[in-house]
Automatic annotation (TrEMBL):
SMART domains per record: MUTSac (SM00534)
Protein name: DNA-binding protein MutS2
The entry's keywords: ATP-binding, DNA-binding, Hydrolase, Nucleotide-binding
One GO BP: mismatch repair
Domain DNA mismatch repair proteins mutS family: 508-693
High-level lineage: Archaea, Methanobacteriati, Methanobacteriota, Stenosarchaea group, Methanomicrobia
Length: 700
């Protein structure tokens, strides 16, 4: 698949939706190839079924195999889907639950694909054995989500790019103009006008080295526009992806570290510890977190408290000056009185001369305490001199214009320092973007593998052994669907052909299975289907041991719900006609006799069994209550096995041995039901049931 439109079901419009959702065509194609059903399903107009079908179709194109290559009937697909649903119960993420649908059974002829899955499962079974607290890991996995592309960053309004070169202006405008102001200036005067309007000015070009900048501007000069990296101009853009996915990333890093401690490496080329430290430095808004830089915290403390502290110390000064004036007395000399009378001096001058030292001391003490309270540095403390009056006045008032200038300078210091931090973080983070995506996908895929491993561990399942000869044998098999119901499940041993066949038992690959109603015949058919499907996916099977010969296709026919009409009956027969010459296969049929009246059914089943028994590469189990009639209608050597009811217990419940007895036609349930009614009935009823019971015993 060279492009999205090469994939089935994807046209130009749908391809654009994929690109918009995943960020680029490469990532969109990667999502399809890795089976990211959850991610694909989030695209507008794409549902979960479409996503699953799309992934299956693409893989079918690549491998030449689809789900119908092995599962030949709707009933076999139903068993497969129920098995997958069972495994999904052990997944912790929507991603894993959806991706499990991309695992399909392969024909034995593609053992290479089965082996890939088997190796993958074995690795995850080993991982599972290394995890002491799977509940905690599962809880951590449940918090893992695919990373999202961040939305466009808001326009940066406290920064401007300035250049005097028209070519550079065009390039910079195209590259950064959507996010930041870019201006072309022709002379220092125009530059000064622009620079005074922004806290941060980035001047690009060598001519700016010769400018005589005003004192109230402090631009950052970059001489060569072609050497600029995006992280330097717009660190917010680089950081935005990590900030937008902050919680997802931190969850992934925490889990990766926990898994690494357990001996399960993250398998990504990245320093997880270094990335974790970088992520801890920013918050979900993309800003530097409090406590990461003591200088920024100190400056923020000044900015947050300078107004209230200044008001406090001005009030303190006025109170002390008021107290001073109330306690002071002034003695005027004759010359002083003459000077006042002649208007040669003012009383204020005389007052200033007498208390100026005390006034200055009060102001200086307040200034010193103010500086210490706000932990100001020397260059900042020099600016504080302009807050307080240098001459005697009362009441004392702070110079608010100087205060505002001071606050603007503090803001610029904070801004410059934060930009420097953001640049450093952006520079280091941009190398982690791809490894981080890989890490998250690795963790999500780990959940898929652990779900299969946990599923297998729940029933002590094992991987199947593949044999070259036709047949299968299982030991201590347990039907998954029954186990899920929480009922006690009797383990089953069974074999077809010569694989694991008990001694002195005819080695038939095509058998009839007889037995009592509710004795477990259907459950055993399901068990065989489950083992076949799981083994051909490469997953563990619900048995202590399974050995299985070549199977390229599975035909499963469940029990019909009643006699079929002529059209449905014809369709059913057509489906069986396709079995002849269909390669190595397993055919499982549950009470086919229900499709028509018993006499005709026995003849039809006999004919089908004859056809299948003629093929050396075919295995089949037919469940039927018509074993005797079927055998009467065929000369083929068909083995009949039976699930036998041993009798009734003390409470008159059926006692059933659910392990089939080889080469044995089992008793039917009606005989035992009559026996139960006979033993539990009254005197009148017993006479009636005795007559029925005798009919069974005489075989008439």
């Amino acid at each position: 698949m060279q492009s999205l439109v090469d994939a089935p079901r994807i046209g130009e419009k749908m391809a654009q939706r994929f690109i918009s959702h995943f960020g680029c065509e490469e990532d969109a194609m990667a999502a399809i190839l890795r089976g990211d059903i959850a991610g694909i399903s989030e695209i507008e107009g794409v549902g979960r079924r479409y996503a699953i079908s799309l992934v299956h179709d693409v893989r079918s194109t690549q491998d030449g195999i689809d789900i119908s290559s092995f599962l030949k009937t709707r009933d076999s697909v139903d068993i497969y889907e129920r098995v997958i649903d069972s495994i999904k119960n052990y997944a912790s993420t929507p991603y894993a639950r959806d991706k499990l649908h991309t695992y399909i059974p392969y024909p034995s002829s593609r053992k290479d694909l089965i082996d890939i899955n088997r190796d993958w499962v074995e690795n995850h079974m080993e991982y599972l054995s290394m995890l002491d607290d799977m509940d905690r890991i599962s809880a951590s996995l449940s918090r893992i989500e695919p990373l999202k592309n961040s939305p466009s960053i808001p326009r940066i309004r406290d920064r401007v790019i300035v250049t005097s070169n028209t070519d550079d202006y065009s390039t910079l405008k195209e590259k950064y103009g959507k996010s930041i102001e870019v201006q072309l200036v022709e002379d220092p005067l125009e530059f000064a006008d622009v620079a005074r309007s922004y806290p941060h000015v980035i001047a690009i070009g060598e001519p700016f080295l010769e400018y005589d900048f005003p004192e109230d501007t402090n631009p950052e000069i970059i001489t060569n526009a072609r050497e600029i990296e995006e992280w330097h101009i717009l660190p917010e853009k680089q950081i935005s992806f990590f900030a937008f996915n902050h919680e997802r990333i931190m969850n992934a890093l925490d889990l990766a570290i926990a898994l690494d401690k357990a001996g399960i490496p993250p398998v990504v080329n990245a320093d997880i510890s270094a990335l974790s430290n970088l992520m801890a430095a920013i918050n979900p808004e993309g800003n530097i977190v409090e406590g990461r830089d003591g200088e920024i915290d100190r400056l923020h403390h000044i900015l947050d408290n300078v107004d209230s502290e200044l008001t406090k110390y001005v009030d303190q000064c006025n109170q002390e000056i008021n107290d001073l004036l109330q306690k002071s007395s002034i003695t005027l000399s004759g010359n002083d009185m003459l000077g006042v009378i002649r208007d040669e001096m003012e009383l204020k001058d005389i007052l200033s001369r007498n208390i100026s030292a005390s006034f200055s001391q009060i102001i200086n003490d307040a200034r010193k305490e103010f500086i210490e309270t706000l932990s100001m540095k020397q260059n900042e403390s020099l600016l504080v001199d302009y807050f307080f009056p240098s001459e005697l006045c009362y009441p004392v008032e702070a110079d608010m214009s100087q205060l505002q200038k001071f606050k603007e300078q503090i803001k610029q210091q904070i801004f410059r320092r934060e930009v420097t931090h953001k640049r450093n973080i952006a520079y280091e983070l941009h190398e982690f973007r791809q490894p981080l995506k890989q890490l998250v996908m690795r963790l999500l895929d780990l959940d898929v593998g652990l779900a299969v491993a946990r599923f297998g561990h729940s029933l002590q399942m094992q991987l199947a052994g593949f044999e070259d000869e036709c047949g299968m044998g299982l030991k201590n098999g347990k039907n998954i669907f029954l186990c899920e119901k929480g009922v006690a499940v009797e383990p089953i041993d069974y074999s077809l052909g010569s694989i694991m066949s008990p001694s002195q038992v005819p080695t038939s690959s095509v058998v009839l299975l007889s037995g009592v109603n509710s004795g477990g015949k259907t459950s055993m058919l399901e068990l065989v289907a489950q083992c076949t499907i799981l083994s051909h996916i490469g997953f563990p099977v619900p048995a202590d041991e399974l050995k299985i010969g070549p199977i390229d296709s599975l035909y499963y026919f469940s029990k019909s719900r009643g006699t079929l009409d002529a059209g449905a009956f014809e369709t059913t027969l057509r489906s069986f006609s396709a079995l002849r010459g269909a390669g190595s296969k397993l055919v499982l049929v549950d009470e086919l006799e229900s499709i028509t009246e018993p006499g005709a059914s026995a003849k039809i089943i006999a004919g089908i069994l004859e056809t299948l028994s003629e093929e050396s590469n075919t295995m089949a189990i037919f469940v039927s209550h018509l074993a005797d009639q079927i055998l009467e209608n065929t000369d083929a050597s068909i083995r009949v096995d039976g699930i036998e009811a041993k009798g009734l217990d003390n409470e008159l419940n059926l006692i059933v041995d659910r392990n089939p007895i080889y080469n044995h036609i089992a008793k039917s349930t009606p005989e035992l039901i009559v026996e139960r009614l006979f033993r539990s009935g009254g005197e009148v009823e017993r006479e009636f049931y005795r007559r029925l019971k005798n009919k069974f015993e005489k075989g008439c």
